[in-house]
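To: structure desk
From: M.T.
Subject: fold request, one chain
Message: Could you run this one when you get a chance? Sequence is below, nothing fancy, just the single chain.
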Amino acid sequence: MAKAKTVVVNQETCIGCGACVAICPDVFEMGSDGKSRVKKLGNCGKCDCQQAIDSCPVTAISWKK
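Reply: Done. C-alpha cells follow.
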C-alpha cells in the first residue's frame, strides 16, 4: 500500500494570506497566530494540494519528504 502524501507549512515563511485554506479547506486552517497550518495529514486526496502549493506567494508549502 502506498503511503499517503502529506504537506508541510513553513511557519517562518508563511505570511497568512489564506490561499491554501481557500483551495484545500480539508487540509489547511488558519492558526490563532494568523498563519496557515496543516490540520489533518493525509487529506490531500480530497482536494488539490499541489494547487495550494503552487498558489502560495511565498512558497511556504511543500510536500513532506
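Reply (cont.): The chain has two helices and four strands. Let me know if you need anything else for the meeting.
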